[in-house]
Design goal:
By secondary structure, the chain is α+β, with helices and mostly antiparallel strands. It contains seven helices and ten strands. The radius of gyration is 24 Å and the shape is elongated.
């Protein structure tokens, strides 16, 4: 197991360093970003309506069906041939929305993460093509060939799943970048009231947590300054219709509630209570209150 682990780490690190992949990944990501730019499309694919990323949830569908097909192929013989064919077919149907949601998430990544994501996608694409070929073979009565093709596809899916885990659990793709923020349930003096300018975000720190202050129409709002999507600095963003727009990937959060107005973010931004008294601004984490 130790040798397998070291090999997997070396191969993953080699993919991360393979900047030649950028010649493919860059243009493809730009195309996907343009295709998914409309707000309803981005929100749907990002999981903004769900409260967390959509792609990881969808991956269970094709993997689950193809796992069931593999078990039937290996244990049920001819008696399970029809059911196995159906499992392969349903897995193929489930792979399409899974790939589209994944491509939307991937288009907002860069560097090493983008390279690993590209290889992850290519492996999944190859696996889907093999499963399609398997299904066609089974339909035409060539079960033995169909089983072999599915086993090859399942091998690619397993390798791709490892890379998917690396993207989420090692590189933090899709993980809320405010997940480990914590503050005491008390008020923290953070700024002089006259330091605030209307409609100009300001970065302060409360109990070690970066916070964005902004005054609009006489009301001071406070959100955590780290974008939940990829860690962008919201205090460097722009204000649009009661929202702040992250300068990195364009996620928009409501100033009053922290809810996501536009993806790719899917997790709401932590909000802070604000108190202005004696010329000073104090904030308190609503999560801790």
């Amino acid at each position: 197991m130790g040798r397998l682990n070291r090999t997997a780490h070396r191969l993953t690190a080699a993919i991360e360093r393979a900047d030649a992949l950028d010649r493919v990944g860059g243009p493809v990501a730009a195309f996907v970003k343009k295709a998914t730019h409309p707000k309803p499309v981005k929100n749907l694919l990002s999981g903004t309506w769900l409260g967390h990323a959509l792609h990881p949830l969808l991956t269970d569908v094709p993997i689950g069906f193809w796992t069931a097909a593999t078990v039937l192929d290996l244990t049920a013989g001819e008696q399970g041939a029809r059911a196995a064919r159906r499992m392969v077919g349903f897995g193929i149907l489930g792979s399409a929305p899974t790939a589209i949601a994944g491509a939307s998430d991937w288009s907002d990544t860069h560097g090493a993460t983008n390279r690993v994501g590209l290889v992850h996608a290519l492996l999944n694409g190859g696996a889907s093509l093999l499963q399609i070929a398997s299904w066609l073979s089974r339909v035409r009565g060539h079960r033995s060939l169909g089983v072999r093709l599915s086993l090859m596809a399942y091998g690619l899916t397993t390798i791709s799943a490892y890379l998917g885990g690396h993207l989420s659990l090692v590189r933090g793709t899709g993980v809320s970048h405010t997940a480990f923020e914590s503050a005491e349930a008390q008020w923290f003096d953070v700024a002089a009231a006259d330091a605030l300018r209307d409609d100009v975000p300001m970065r302060v720190v409360a109990d070690g947590v970066p916070v964005m202050l902004v005054r609009q129409h006489g009301t001071v709002w406070a959100l955590s300054a780290t974008c939940t999507h990829a860690g962008g600095p919201l205090d460097e963003g722009t204000l649009i219709d009661g929202c702040v727009k992250c300068p990195w990937h364009g996620s928009e959060f409501r100033l009053d509630r922290g809810t996501v107005e536009r993806g790719p973010a899917s997790v709401p931004e932590p909000t802070w209570d604000v108190k202005v008294a004696d010329g000073r601004v104090a904030v308190r984490s609503r999560a801790a209150a």
